[in-house]
Amino acid sequence: MEIPYEVTPRRDTGLYNAKLGIWLFLASEVMLFGGLFSAYVFLRMGVQDGVDDPWPWGVSVHKNFVWLGAINTIVLIASSVGVVFAWVALKERNWRRYQIYMYFVVACAVAFMCIKSIEYNSKLNHHHGIKLIDNSVMEGAILDKTDRVRFEGEKITFNLQGALPAVLRDIREESFPKFKVIEGPEGVVGNEITSLSSFKGWFADSRRAVFEKLTSERQRYRAELASGVANPKPVSVVSSATLVAEAPFTISGSPRKIVATTEAVVSYKDGVKLEGKRVSDDVIFEVHEVDLQLVIPQKQRDSVVWEVINDDRAKQQFFAAQSKNYQELVEYYKDHGGVVPEEQLRGRYLNVHYVHVAADGHGGEHGKEDKHADVHRSESNPTAGGGGEEEEHGPSKHLIIPRDQIKFMGNHGPRYGTYYALYFTMTALHGLHVIGGALVLLFFTVFGKKLYLKNPEHLANRVEVGGLFWHFVDLVWIFLFPIMYLL
Questions:
Q1: Residue 334: exposure state from Cβ atoms within 10 A (0-12, 13-18, ≥19)
Q2: For every residue of the chain, which 3-state class applies, written as one string?
Q3: How many whole angstroms separate alpha carbon 404 and alpha carbon 89?
Q4: What does the alpha-carbon distance between residue 379 and residue 122 come to, in Å, rounded to a whole number?
Q5: φ, ψ dihedrals at 240, nearest 5°
């Protein structure tokens, strides 16, 4: 049976089946991205100055990566042009030229995703922020993974009815200690575990035995109730186990998985309790920027951030830049017949500036290169740095920040703030569309020869449908780029 209107358009609509289907699909895509763009607008407009976390400028977030976003825009526009040329080549029955243009489109998609991976890697692995207890913020880099909890464990207690203990992921397999079970269900006490793989096998067997014992106890309890026993023995099954290590072992645990830590105990969210002693609780940080937007101006000079940084030169650098920018605002608003608005006094232009904390023995020395710090200095927003020429500097000092001074810390990932959550949601979703569209177009190129020889017009229609989706993906990015990178 032949399906009508696969190639020829209907007389009433002028559309063939696939084209009608893609327009319906694109309508649903418009609603999806429209909802996300609307959420972005409402969340940004709903920010209360001085109360909510400030909404960052796209330029200040991406800094010198803005040009990568601009390159990606050019790449997608070029790929859209390539799709049109590929479709024209099919209409002209030129298979070889069609392949060249389509491979160019796929190459553009690969280049786009590679550039996005560079941006994601920068934000997730090389840029961090720490909010201190007075809401002052330091932007920079957490060094040596010191945001993780470092602990020397001796004893682990966990429940055999749950999943594998989360602490196992924090112990390197090559340094996995020898454990002995000292408490637990009957039959497991005294067992020895020598490796991670043997632990997994022992855990599976022990959990199965606990479930069988629990099932047996429930059956016994129900039978006693049915037989009229006045006070049946309650269901009681030992389901926890305690393991002692032959030698102390070190973990480096993610703060996301840990509920609380003391000098002697680490408690995980899955109920695991690790006993031992804390190795260190300090965070090593290299500061590049100080943000005082959430600290009222009268208390900024006494902010906790200056106690943590403990460098008068860096403090003077910050307030000199703030004073210079304030005078510029005063002159600007004097010419416009008014005083400086409150949102400007609490805004980024006055309260976010680059600072350099010189390493010991390098304060004030010039000409010595610190590539890591220089990269971040070049990324700094000129408006946030106070303007003017930026002097060279030596190595940056690594700050030791006590964990009790920290309210929140993390990389510039989705958890860092509403803007970052929306940024990763929208750009990642768009990236999935790029990958999906590229795979469809690549399929038409690699496996379309048979359909081309049978009915070239049919393949041309399929490429046109794929091209419509590709143009939509390009259009979404044209909206995403200025909103996320420039505004």
A1: exposed
A2: CCCCCCCCCCCCCCCCHHHHHHHHHHHHHHHHHHHHHHHHHHHHHCCCCCCCCCCCCHHHHHHHHHHHHHHHHHHHHHHHHHHHHHHHHHHCCCHHHHHHHHHHHHHHHHHHHHHHHHHHHHHHHHCEEEEECCCCEEEEEECCCCCCEEEEEEEEEEECCCCCCHHHHHCCHHHCCCEEEEECCCCCCCCEECCHHHHHHHHHHHHHHHHHHHHHHHHHHHHHHHCCCCCCCCCCCCCEEEEEEEEEEEEEECHHHEEEECCCEEEECCCCEEEEEEEECEEEEEEEEEECCCCCHHHHHHCHHHHHHCCHHHHHHHHHHHHHHHHHHHHHHHHCCCCCCHHHHCCHHHHEEECCCECCCCCCCCCCCCHHHHHHHHHCCCCCCCCCCCCCCCCECCEEEEHHHEEEEEECCHHHCHHHHHHHHHHHHHHHHHHHHHHHHHHHHHHCHHHHHHCHHHHHHHHHHHHHHHHHHHHHHHHHHHHHHHC
A3: 66
A4: 12
A5: -100, 155
The predicted-structure confidence for 344-388, as pLDDT tens digits, reads as follows 888 888 899 998 888 765 544 333 334 444 444 444 444 444 443
Alpha carbon separation from 190 to 161, 169, 182, 183, 437 (Å, rounded): 19, 24, 6, 8, 58
Structure token pair of residue 408 = 């929140």
Which amino acid appears at position 140 of this protein?
A: G
pLDDT band of 128, cuts 50, 70, 90: very high
Residue pointed to by tokens 């996301």 = 256
430 is written with which tokens? 């768009």
Domains and CATH numbers, the chain: 17-127+416-486 (1.20.120.80), 138-144+285-411 (no CATH), 149-253 (no CATH)
d(CA 164, CA 329): 58
Model confidence pLDDT, tens digit, residues 155-184: 999 998 888 888 888 887 777 889 999 998
Copy the structure tokens of residue 233.
């023995």
CA 134 to chain centre: 25
CA-to-CA distance for 243 and 189, rounded, in angstroms? Answer: 9
The C-alpha atoms of residue 330 and residue 335 are separated, in whole angstroms, by 9
Say which range, 124-133, 169-178, 297-306, has the weakest mean pLDDT.
169-178
Share of the chain above pLDDT 90, in %: 42
Side by side, which strands form the sheet with 265-268? 192-193, 179-183, 240-253, 149-159, 273-280, 265-268, 258-261
